Amino acid sequence: MLEIQNLTVRFQLPQGTITALEGVNLTLRDGEKLCVVGESGSGKSVLMLAVLCLLPENACVSGSILLDGEDLLQKSQKDLTEIRGMKLSYVPQGSGNSLNPLLRLGFQVSESLVAHRRLPRRGADQRSIQLLQQFHLGDEEQLVRSYPHTLSGGMRQRALLALGIAPEAPYLVADEPTKGLDSDRVGLVVDCFNSLEGCSLLCVTHDLTFAQQVADRVAIIYAGQMIEYETAEQFFGSPRHPYSKALLDAVPERGLNAIPGFSPGHEDYTDACRFYNRCPCRTAQCQTQPKDRWDGERMVKCIYGAP
Amino acid sequence: MKQRNLLQGRAAAVTGMVLLLLILLVAVFAPALAPYDPWAMGTPYLPPSSEHLLGTNDIGQDILSELIYGTRVSMFIGVCAALITTIIGTAVGVLAGYFGGIVDHILMAVTNVVIVVPSLPLTVVLVAYLQAGLWNIIIALCVTAWAGTARLIRAQVMQLRQQPFVQLERTLGMGNGYIMLVHILPNVSGIILTRGALSVASAMLSEASLSFLGLGALGQKSWGAILNNAFFRNGVVNNCWWWYYPPILCICVCVVAFMLIGSWDDRRSRGQNLLAM
Amino acid sequence: MALLEVVSLRKTYRTSMRRVEVLTDASFTVEAGETIGILGPSGSGKSTIGQIVTGLIRADSGTIRYRNEELHYPLRSYQRKEIQILFQHPEVSFNPKYRLEQGFQEICRHYDLRMTRRELLDYLADFGLYREHLERHPIQLSGGELQRAMVARVMLLDPKLIVLDEPTSMLDTISQAQVLRMLEALQRQRQVSYLYITHSRCLADHLCQRIYYLDGGQLREEPFPAEICHQSSQKKEGRKFYHETHHIIPAEHGAAAPADRLRRESQPK
């Protein structure tokens, strides 16, 4: 189980201190798929990097991140390297330069096996082929010998997923796996994520269509705060936070309705609810920050989202 | 706070700059620092003593004073050659990379020819034909040195010109010259500065080699020239270590200083981009 | 008279290894004030059409007429000013070395637009951009902010035709809706035409009046409106954001069986 308790991340920047993430509590159960959804700049990537303990040096992290009861924030770099290889695995963004252009795909997919499981190089290629076959990339024997630039965007994302599951870590952290892909390719990536068994997934995304098809649970991040934490079924059926509703209304298939206004900049945080300026149902009560209202495993940070 | 961020991970480059500053101070205040006139003759082959800290040479000139004055010559040649080299290299690289096509073909053909020509022999031949003056040395040093810079910058510019922001400048109606100067150049400034610093180092080494071979600027006491004297005027035979080690050390320190500066890392302070994710 | 008339455009990319014919015979027209969609799978050459129309690359053959005058590569004078493009990657659409403000000042200088800082800020407020944004470098801004800034920058030139080359595929859902709705509003205000290049039929249905499908280097006009994105009609009935029950997103991606799709993807291109 991965438990994040009261996680706050601040950055020391030349122009001052900035709060990127504030008081986030969430739990990822074994075998569960959790999608963290938010706009760019909301802090969802910061959450992901915090879990991976890969934040830059100027970040001050407080709270705790318990992986099977052990606090990752208290670990030494050496232990973390071990944990990242064996227990916690990362699936990078396919649209970026996540694959080394100078190394063969097979080498990169099984690299973690060689490093952490002491698999001999020769056996590793065989394993790479198996892993790629799992995601139906086609002609895998040829593929492990080819270089990343020969792959299309959708293939690259699936190869990265193969790379992520190679060490058979029980926890998988994925970063925007559908960014820049067209809908056919998104479908392929969805199928691959759904075919994962027995591993817990923490997936950062802004693609609600993708989240709906993959997630068991959804956490919505807005302006550095988690504002709703909900089962996927509940969230896509009847979201409770006004922002969540606006988010779903913006999905092209649901009308492409843009909510007026923009999320506040990091300098503009006030005592009011962060969504105050854009919220259609705001009242005087919203001038103070609402509390996290927990109802068992669900949470909403809004006075209206009564359980 | 700001200062610390700026210098983080750049200790090497800062060390280089401090070294360079010291060297520059020595060059500027040479007359005040040198204990003797470097041309004045006295007792030959004196070992280091309190009077002559680094001893004297075969005609009794004070070696410390020679070194201090030599800083001026060596630095002047190094910096001028590097400046010219970098300007030519940048111009060729940017033009070839930005325009591509026939311009690129021609410029790169020239560059490739220059790269395969063995540079030191060519320089030697050039210096031998030209008169051995200060500027002729500088010109000879520049003839081949720009090619590496041009190749590097061309590669970078070719990538840059594909970037949307450059394409957008074109659709916004900006002229090619403007785009190259205002949008391309600042984005290769890191390479230009790094290559520039390294060019100074290599120009100083080449100059030392030329002077050592006796092809240096006539009548100028550069470090290479002192070394040449030490070797060909019985310094080594007479085991006058104070004569040939110090110039070698000076050249090394100077080259290292410029190389360290060349390691300057142009990254923005990390963490800022996280806010936009 | 059509604003833009493109007749049998042809373009082949040649590398030392092979040649790829992306456009064989592409023809279409754009009327003033309308949005034309160009759909097609990744790598089909959609972007090439946009770049040829914008004068960024040269076509092998074919004619393009803009306001009944032929376009020649490279574009000059009023054509250069009136035909603009927005790219897919807002994060590299601004020079990383300059603050956002300098990107705007540059245009004001070049086209001699007399705009005080106050006027510029007023103008940008419509795009949701404020002084703090202007003072930042592109790396410190989100994709949505940058793309809105890009729209604002391009609109300074008062263009008549803008090529939208997948302008929202790197943006989050809300930014996507904001940018596209903003473009719609600008179209109503300024009578600008869009050539909308996208891979999403649903988005094209929202924005476009006519849709072309690029297939095998040729464009064919698609029947419109399509059935796929049926819920979009709801907005025309004046649907309110917050007080309506939400439906599960229709299973657009689930239409084909997974195995089918996998096979399609793995086929050599």
Structure description:
The complex is a heterotrimer of chains A (307), B (277) and C (269). By secondary structure, chain A is α/β, with parallel strands linked by helices. Chain A is 30% helix and 25% strand. Chain A has two domains: 2-99 and 151-300, 3-Layer(aba) Sandwich (Rossmann fold); 100-150, no CATH class. Chain A has helices at 44-51, 77-86, 105-109, 111-116, 121-134, 140-143, 153-165, 183-194, 208-214, 232-237, 242-249, and strands spanning 2-13, 16-28, 33-38, 59-67, 70-71, 88-91, 171-175, 200-205, 217-222, 225-231, 293-295, 298-300. In chain A, the strands form two sheets. Chain A has an eight-stranded mixed β-sheet, with helices on both faces. In chain A, strands 2-1-4-5 form a four-stranded antiparallel β-sheet, with helices on one face. In chain A, α5 crosses α7 (153-165) and α7 packs parallel to α8 (183-194). Chain B is an all-alpha fold. Chain B has a single domain (10-27, 62-267), classed as MetI-like fold, CATH 1.10.3720. In chain B, 71% of the residues lie in helices and 0% in strands. In chain B, α2 crosses α11 (241-262), α4 (63-99) runs parallel beside α7 and α9 packs antiparallel against α11 (241-262). The model of chain B is unreliable at 1-5 and 268-277 (pLDDT under 50). Chain C is of the alpha/beta class and 269 residues long. Chain C is built from ten helices and ten strands. The longest helix of chain C has 18 residues, at 173-190.
Low-confidence segments of chain A: none
Number of domains of chain B: 1
Tell me the Rg of chain A in angstroms.
20 Å
Our count of domains of chain A comes out at 2
List SSEs of chain B in N-to-C order. Answer: HHHHHHHHHHH
| Highest CATH level, the class of the largest domain in chain A | Alpha Beta
Please state the second-level CATH architecture of the largest domain in chain A.
Answer: 3-Layer(aba) Sandwich
Along the chain, the helix and strand elements of chain A come as: EEEHEEHEHHHHHEHEHEEHHEE
Numbering strands along the chain, what is their spatial order in the largest sheet of chain A? 6-7-8-3-9-10-12-11
What is the H level of CATH, i.e. the homologous superfamily of the largest domain in chain A?
P-loop containing nucleotide triphosphate hydrolases
* Structural class determined from secondary elements of chain A: alpha/beta
CATH architecture of chain B: Orthogonal Bundle
Oligomeric state, counting identical vs distinct chains: heterotrimer
> Which stretches of chain B are low in confidence, meaning pLDDT under 50 for 5 or more residues running?
1-5, 268-277
Number of helices of chain A: 11
The CATH class of chain B is identified as Mainly Alpha
- Distance, first to last CA of chain A: 25 Å
Number of strands of chain B: 0
